[in-house]
Description:
- Chain A is mainly alpha-helical.
- Helices cover 77% and strands 0% of the residues of chain A.
- Chain B is mainly alpha-helical.
- Chain B has helices at 3-6, 13-33, 51-59, 61-92, 99-107, 114-124, 131-138, 155-180, 184-192, 197-225, 229-234, 246-256, 259-288.
- The chains are: A mainly alpha, B mainly alpha.
- At the A-B interface, helix 1, helix 4, helix 5, helix 6 and helix 7 of A face helix 1, helix 2, helix 4, helix 5 and helix 6 of B.
Amino acid sequence: MRLRKRLASIGLNALAWLLSLVVLIPFVVIVLNSFKSDAEAKVLKLTLPEKFIFENYKIVYEQGHLGGSFFNSLLHSGASSLLLVFVVAFSAFTLSRNHSKLSKFLYFFLILGITLPLNYIPLMEVMKSMGMINSHVGMILLYTAMGIPISLFITYAFVSNIPKELDEAAIMDGCNGIKLFLRIIVPLLTSVLVTVFVLNFLSVWNEFTAPLYMLNTVEMWPMTLAVYNFFGQFSAQWNLVSADIVLTSLPVLIVFLIGQKYIVGGLTSGAVKG
Amino acid sequence: MNANKIYPWYFSSGAIVLYLLFIVAPALLGIYYSFTDWNSYSSEKNFIGLEHFRTILAGDPTYLLFIKNTVLFTLVTSIAKTVLGLFLALLLVSGVKAANLHRMIIFSPQVLSFLIVGLVFKSLLDPNNGFVNVTLRSLGLDVLAQNWLGSLTWAMPSIMAVDTWKGMGYIMVLFIAGLLAIPRDYYEAASIDGAGFGQKLFRITIPMLMPTITIATVLNITYGLRVFDAVYVLTNGGPGNATDVINTAVYSSFAKGYWGLGSALSTILFVIMAIISFFIIRLMNRKVEY
């Protein structure tokens, strides 16, 4: 019986590693290839490079417009996430506290966007009419709007859990709405707002469809479009493509490692309760 | 105490204005454009009624293929992610060592852009030099080597497999959270009564996980119907139109300048999603008030 249990445990551990390897191997192949010579990388094998060539990364950085694109991605992700935190904190607070029919309607209306698809063709028309095509401001506002539904959903539930007695006590002490919000509610919301920030930062960083429709000048491109374009030019040189992939996924993986708790927490909130 | 004074509605105005401008206005405008012949070749937008919808639903059969592909993709990936996610979650809560490390590894593709994942697999699935075929050949399994993304038979299954590979980690994480919330005494009581693994799985675990299974299914379905990046990067709808889905068809009608037709395709997707959303919002609402 004990032997059987041990064998089962070894089997389960082996299975877990096997499945993790299925996820890891594609990345390992890419990382190894990013250090290989052009000829050696022609065949995507799981072997160590004969000689590690760091030059690949330099070429990729210089020819892939990565510097400018990195800045664009950072600007779009950072600014839209900050703005999002700001507007969502305000709206989650009022909509969840004010129990009127209008508040309830507005809440459902806003979170409806979690599932509804964006219609990009008329969106272009709308943005054009506001002079926001090919503009940083336009992209930042668009990303903020796209982030509102899911972020509001997460934050709203969180505000509902803050006892209303706190508000009443603060009002007795002479706070008005804005003071109550800034001094009492915002500090209590910090962790959920960090979650909203991190989740939105990642999704904007990874966004591919919106820039494909909205941005047609190279100077405005985020990392995703720059990488796609790079692939189009160098698709025969796997070593360079691999280096490009590594360089562009690194920032995201670093954010993931640092913000793991918030990311997983945010993605599961709402889905699992009780 | 007057709630309207302490929690004034205009605190929400920032969110509401942005949402109306960038999400709602295009949606409504899109429905209107669906009924026009708007295109890049003329400056006029003429009202043409249901003509686009007739073309899509009863005229050109390729459009029905796109809708069929979208539904097929959604069905297969939803089932695959739910089953694999549950399996992975059960494995990782069964007491394996370094469960957190495994969880992190299996979840990690989820945080990467589909563009990156797509390019990784485009290289791995290359028919001549890709890792998959090279490995199969070196194992003497030449027969199994395929033109994964370029053949009519294998392109769609390959995209589905890559998408499942990327998304199963998220579903796994949901299930882990769900599993950890099931009280241990249920299993202890079942063990005392002599229940085996299968009985515990089907009598306790799966019924207790129903809320998580519902949410996972909903997430998978809404993601699947909206899929774009995965198909665009891996095959761009090819070979021919074999892997085109609604959203890649929208993009190509946009690129070709058929804006009215593209809007009509979007509107069809919108209607399907709106019906599904109605039920989802009700589900989520129940969860919030839990």
